[in-house]
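User: Hey, quick favor. My workstation is busy. Could you predict this chain's structure for me?
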Amino acid sequence: MAEFFAMGGHGVYVWGAYGVSIVALVLIGGLPLLALRRTTRQLKEEWLEPPAADPVERP
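Assistant: No problem, here it is.
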């Protein structure tokens, strides 16, 4: 089993490449979800916010 993970002396490079790939895929999938959640929250706050008083004084 150790020989499989060592991959003929190239295991560090192979498993490192797998690790970098997994991190990249998680970021590619996760960052847009975080942005969507943040944008949705901002839009809800804007739409649910009560209208501000009219700043222009009318005679």
